[in-house]
Amino acid sequence: MTSGVGPAHVVRHGSRITAVRAANPGPLTLTGTQTYVIGTGPLIVLDPGPQDEAHLGRVDDVVAGRPVAAVCLTHAHADHAAAAAAAAGRWGELRASAATLDLVGLAGRALAEDEAMAPGKGLRLRAIPTPGHSADHVCYLLEPSRTLFTGDLVLGEGSTMIAHPDGSVEAYLASLAHLAALRPERLLPGHGAPVEDALARLEECRTHRLERVAAVRRALQAGARTPERIRAAVYGDLPATHHAAADLTIRAYLAFLGETALGETSSSISRRR
Questions:
Q1: 185-221 in b/e burial notation, b at 16+ Cβ within 10 A?
Q2: How many helices (H) and strands (E) in the chain?
Q3: What pLDDT score does 269 carry?
Q4: Which one of 3, 28, 101, 154 has the lowest number of neighbouring Cβ atoms within 10 Å?
Q5: What percent of the chain is predicted at pLDDT more than 70?
Q6: What is residue 225's predicted lDDT score, i.e. its pLDDT?
Q7: Degrees (nearest 5) of the Cα angle 116, 121, 127?
Q8: What average pLDDT does the segment 133-154 reach?
């Protein structure tokens, strides 16, 4: 591995998957964005991460000169995709949803729904469209192990951000149901630790989101109309570092509930973040 890099940056999940964690910890990225090197060859590099040469160097150490079929993206957010051009230049063709390619402004191959790639003999990596966190989001299911790479749709801990209008609570719940129907066995998220009980975690995320919807509904029924009051009712004493994310997610809940006029409109709530 790259000199001076602690072992926590690179974690092997069996012989076919290695996670390389970027040095970009934060309130929304947890301990950092994880790039996955998948397969036995030709490899898939999933989510090359932020524009960080040290991180790309660690990924290159894991690739170790082996052939790479493609650099894939779960979605276009910068902590997952800022290094996409550099990664494709190093390793292989960029592949993602058509919407993601458009958002990052790069040439590549648009993945069809449920398109399968073969990162090794007997392996299939399927692209599963999963909007919700963002409209362009895609998860990837590795078979036969039924390991699901969840990007930002499901984190290793806590809950993901759903920022209106790109994020959608309705789409998020539908994507969780779609993933549960696939019966994955393990989740490898873009942020946080692996999840060994995949179905329980998907159900936990669904239940949590519905509880938040109910909390927003109760706040509205109690007369909350400003972003501060709705946030306080739903999230309690939330750290200031999380206020902007919470306000954007509240707008997504309001859209889900069909609330477009609250004394203040949703747009005026946004302007006051």
A1: ebbbbbbbbbbeebeebbeebeeebeebbebbbebbe
A2: 9, 14
A3: 37
A4: 3
A5: 92
A6: 85
A7: 15
A8: 98
Contact in structure between 119 and 40 (CB atoms under 8 Å): yes
pLDDT of residue 150: 98
Determine contact, residues 97/136, Cβ cutoff 8 Å.
Answer: yes
- Tokens at residue 91, please? 């390793």
Looking at per-residue confidence, does 58 or 2 come out higher? 58
Sheet strands side by side (includes 109-110): 10-12, 17-21, 34-38, 43-46, 68-72, 93-96, 109-110
Q: Fill in the amino acid letter for 28.
A: L
Alpha-carbon span 90 to 94, nearest angstrom = 11
Indicate the DSSP class of residue 108: -
Q: Is 253 exposed, middle or buried (0-12, 13-18, 19+ CB in 10 A)?
A: buried
Q: How far is Cα 208 from Cα 78, in angstroms, rounded to an integer?
A: 26
pTM, whole model, 2 decimals?
Answer: 0.90
Measuring CA to CA, which residue among 115, 186, 110 is closest to residue 154? 186
Average pLDDT value over all residues in the chain: 91
164 contacts 248 by C-beta, under 8 angstroms: yes
